Amino acid sequence: MDIEKIGKFIAERRKSLNLTQAQLAQKLNITDRAVSKWETGRALPDSSIMLALCEVLSISVNDLLSGEVISSTDYRDELEKKLVEMVKQKEQHDRQLLTLECLIGVLSVLVLLLPITVGSLLPEGSVEDWQRTLIVLSGFIPAMVGIGFALKIEQLAGYYECKKCGYKYVPTFKAVNLAPHMGRTRYMKCPNCNKKSWQKKVINKDKEV
Q: pTM above 0.90?
């Protein structure tokens, strides 16, 4: 998706309708700064406003995302290309999230283990017992917060595949959090066949992590 091309296209359509950035922004109930960001290729219109923008500019969403008016003969091919591109972008984003999950998990374990190690290595009599206990427990809360974030990422990135029926789905956070697991393979109940199995994490409908 060429953001700069989309931005230039928005500017061209706006000017062809004799609208200023401020006038276009007023029609969409946004600031002219947002319009400026679109037209300079620094940001894309938010999905919640795309339909309204297309209506004002008299174009389709496919035209907008292509950065040009698409003829009816080319519409289907362009739509398929956009769908494939969106799937690839989601796959790449999910892989980045799962990498971030690993990093957060490792850091959370370190945060948990560091004060435990420090507390256990302190010489006898150097601190009060309650102080030693406080040091040991100081990493617990931030570690649990980090692990919670990691679990949330694992829940949302990609899908889980039922071993029984092959159904791929995004489980609830509660299901992921409570399920026994080995790595990213979790023992959960499939919402499609209602059977429990060890379900693998997959990045999309075809590939495993």
A: no
